[in-house]
Amino acid sequence: MSTPSITEEVESALAGNRPVVALESTILSHGLPPGRNREVAARIEDVVRAAGAVPATIAVLGGVPKVGLTAEELDRVCDPANDLVKLSRRDLGAAFALKRDGATTVAGTAALAHAAGIGVFATGGLGGVHRGARETWDVSADLDVLATTPVLVVCSGVKSILDVGATLELLETRSVPVLGYRADRFPAFYRRESAFGVPWRVESAAEAAAVVAAHRSGVPGSSGVLLANPVPAAFEMPADLHERLLAEGLELLRSRGVRGKEVTPVLLEHFHTASGGVSLDSNEELVVSNAALAAEVAVELAALEG
Ligand code: PSU
Ligand code: MN
């Protein structure tokens, strides 16, 4: 693999077994509008630091995998003029060899984080099984990477634009533990609850860390763990607005014939413009909340696994 470029701050934290939290770049380049994405990037890193961990935002720049980004590199990722490619794990080799700039998805970020020795990762929403997957076979590589990469992913579940039930079934099949953070139901990104329960509930970062440590040290195999953290209640999208945007978004995909890796960005864009910013606030607050929780868990894990 192309040798990753790790910032000094991240490198020294890893060498000292101090807590590090990996952060995804696709939510910045493809999930949030220009300007707002840069503010969110800075805020996420701030909350991770405030909780006592070191943030490592991951991207590929000029073909080099970057673990930890400087302020200038974050600018580059967030500037739409640079037209970053969306990189899932399978795209990494091409981006390295062809010296491209790209933003990593959950799958791409988890792979690079693990390779760098980072075991905790925060994002907004996980990719999953799309509605209609029986015909399209559109199932995010995020699920496969979680099944094969021993990282903890903290997220707010999956969007209800996906088939939430099928996503949970696949996570069960692939032996990925799913924990609800102070929640009995799997969250649906903009909404705190989907119609589906979670198999396990934890009440604190310490409990989550204990489960992750036990899974890693005592359970054969190398699957990751999913910690599902519902959007903060004050920023949950109202149910009726959510229903309307969802129906419109799905119709938009159908009428425009959107396929493959464009599906998620097109839907996000529709939610953001058609909700007059309500979805953006939800999106920002849930990512910030996940980053803070991931940092708390990383701190507990460093104490346990030290
Ligand atoms: N879900 C969101 N926002 C996002 C994504 C998912 O609510 O920005 C991004 C993440 O980077 C995720 C990717 O890993 O989309 C999944 O894309 P696909 O379904 O093409 O695998
Ligand atoms: Mn897909």
UniProtKB/TrEMBL annotation:
Assembly and binders: Homotrimer.
Keyword RNA-binding: no
Functional summary from the UniProt entry: Catalyzes the reversible cleavage of pseudouridine 5'-phosphate (PsiMP) to ribose 5-phosphate and uracil. Functions biologically in the cleavage direction, as part of a pseudouridine degradation pathway.
Record InterPro entries: Indigdn_synthA-like, PsuG
Keywords of this entry: Glycosidase, Hydrolase, Lyase, Manganese, Metal-binding
E.C. code: 4.2.1.70
Cited SUPFAM superfamilies: Indigoidine synthase A-like
Binding site for Mn(2+): 138
GO terms assigned for molecular function: hydrolase activity, acting on glycosyl bonds
Free-text comment on the cofactor: Binds 1 Mn(2+) ion per subunit.
Residues at the active site: 24, 159
Record-stated family: Belongs to the pseudouridine-5'-phosphate glycosidase family.
Reactions catalysed, as given in the entry: D-ribose 5-phosphate + uracil = psi-UMP + H2O
Protein name according to UniProt: Pseudouridine-5'-phosphate glycosidase
Residues that coordinate or bind substrate: 86, 106, 140-142
Entries under Pfam families matching the protein: Indigoidine_A
Enzyme class: lyase
Co-factor requirement: Mn(2+)
Organism: Saccharothrix xinjiangensis
